[in-house]
Amino acid sequence: MNRGLTAVVTACALCAAAAVCAPPGAVAQTPAAQVQTRGDVQNGKRLFERDGCYQCHGYAGQGSRDGARIAATAMTSAAFARYVRRPFGAMPGFTEKVVSDAELADIYDFLKSLPQAAPAKDIPLLSHLRDK
User: Fold this and answer.
1) Pick the residue with more confidence: 29 or 42?
2) Is residue 25's pLDDT more than 50?
3) Rounded to whole angstroms, how far apart are CA atoms 47 and 99?
């Protein structure tokens, strides 16, 4: 595996580990909390594109070779902000000089407004997985 791909795979694994290994209550949210937004979703979308988040995470937060899926994230806004400020792996940190706390709140609310990915069993091209 080449060095760049190894870094990307490591970054994705670390993002997943951060979501799984967070303290109880820091990752999971109630369904009601997933619907409520306090920030400006449209501004969050604009900032997501302006700050280049889409380049690794995709325009709809669906993830890619270079970034984890972050649409409809299960992270709390505090955990999200903490990770954006001090990430581990290949993701660069975004200080308050680059994106303010208010802008991060808007980006978070944009991500929370995106639909969750469909389960593999509900995707026609993956119908062979339904039998399992």
Assistant:
1) 42
2) no
3) 9
